[in-house]
């Protein structure tokens, strides 16, 4: 199993009383709540934390894309990846993702990712997403077109990475007379592609196709639903004539580890509940706008995301396996259990969440890196997971 530190870069200085006037930290929250002086300090603190993950021995660090919200301050994750490219030495840098359907020119992503891949000499992981429903509100984009635009943008980017140019591209949504990528990516035939998802069955079908076999990531989901989606990926692979490996499956989950279960719960409680009830707060119609999902996928995603509706407590998410919290022994045991039962090969931990301050984030990172990661590395390398 490989270990990554994922960062959302939230606006941790958010006035948490905002919800007395506004119903969401996304899209409709006035940007007067953002103080650039505080935001500048947060950006540099967060980059320091990701650089520290490199020193602590993580396999990778992850940034992602969200627009017009306090939940994640990375509307352009390539900026963060570029900042990390020269300041880190060993870790993979995963950009999870770019929201391809929002783009007017997907070639810019092919160029941007190729540049980071060259600067890092092959340490880039390319993440592609459709983007959650709120992004379509932010960009005034039609979610009903998102599947077609995603697939066409993906095909254009991969061709730009792998085909000798110049060549012409004529699609339904994108048309170019000349595609001739300078620079070409460092990795051959191109950087590995990961597909984060909320659980769309169409996304699982597409990512698992033998032509792609992309790593599928499930994000912030009850562990029962995680197991279902991972099993679905494996089933689709078998139906298409091959056996999926653990390297094709990943899980993103917030984790907090401290000296004892009691200390961990006490230190994490306010911050994980702020994350759940303040930063994640958005109406369902913003998360899942009409046309965004097929009926089949909508039913599955609604079931999974119903676990984060309403007011949530730390106990709620610990019980559902959506937050791993406790002593090193507790965290090791829980993660080992889930990995053995489900068989994911990439573990993306949110070690900073919501309002968790710098000193507790560093403490969390250090204990996790020294007392959890080495144990799980040894166990998962010695005992292959049983995925059935």
From TrEMBL:
InterPro entries: Bact_Lucif_Oxidored, Luciferase-like_dom, Luciferase-like_sf
GO molecular function: oxidoreductase activity, acting on paired donors, with incorporation or reduction of molecular oxygen
Residues in Luciferase-like domain copies: 43-339
GO cellular component: cytosol
Protein name as it appears in the record: LLM class flavin-dependent oxidoreductase
Organism listed in the record: Flavimaribacter sediminis
């Amino acid at each position: 199993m490989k270990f990554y530190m994922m960062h959302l870069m939230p606006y941790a200085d958010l006035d948490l009383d905002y919800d007395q006037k506004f119903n969401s930290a996304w899209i409709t929250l006035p940007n007067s709540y953002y103080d650039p002086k505080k935001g500048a300090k947060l950006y540099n603190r967060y980059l320091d934390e990701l650089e520290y993950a490199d020193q602590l021995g993580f396999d990778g660090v992850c940034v992602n894309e969200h627009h017009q919200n306090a939940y994640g301050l990375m509307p352009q994750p390539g900026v963060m990846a570029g900042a990390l490219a020269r300041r880190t030495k060993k870790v993979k840098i995963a950009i999870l993702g770019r929201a391809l359907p929002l783009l007017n020119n997907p070639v810019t992503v092919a160029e941007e990712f190729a540049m980071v891949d060259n600067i890092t000499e092959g340490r880039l992981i390319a993440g592609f997403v459709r983007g959650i429903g709120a992004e379509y509100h932010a960009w005034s984009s039609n979610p009903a077109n998102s599947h077609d635009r995603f697939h066409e943008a993906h095909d254009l980017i991969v061709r730009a990475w792998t085909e000798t140019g110049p060549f012409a591209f004529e699609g339904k949504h994108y048309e170019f007379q000349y595609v001739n990528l300078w620079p070409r990516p460092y990795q051959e035939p191109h950087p590995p592609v990961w597909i984060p998802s909320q659980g769309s069955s169409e996304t699982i079908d597409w990512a698992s196709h033998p032509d792609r076999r992309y790593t599928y990531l499930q994000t912030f989901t009850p562990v029962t639903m995680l197991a279902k989606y991972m099993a679905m990926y494996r089933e689709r692979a078998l139906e298409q004539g091959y056996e999926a490996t653990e390297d094709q499956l990943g899980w993103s989950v917030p984790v907090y580890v401290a000296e004892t279960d009691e200390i961990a719960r006490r230190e994490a409680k306010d911050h994980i509940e702020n994350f759940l009830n303040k930063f994640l707060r958005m109406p369902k119609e913003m998360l899942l706008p009409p046309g965004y999902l097929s009926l089949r996928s909508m039913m599955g995603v609604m079931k999974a995301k119903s676990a984060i509706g309403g007011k949530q407590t730390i106990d709620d998410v610990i019980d559902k396996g959506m937050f791993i919290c406790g002593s090193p022994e507790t965290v090791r045991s829980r993660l080992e259990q889930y990995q053995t039962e489900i068989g994911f090969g990439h573990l993306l931990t949110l070690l900073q969440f919501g309002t968790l301050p710098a000193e507790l984030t560093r403490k969390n990172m250090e204990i996790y890196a020294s007392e959890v990661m080495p144990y799980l590395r040894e166990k998962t390398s010695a005992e292959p997971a049983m995925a059935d």
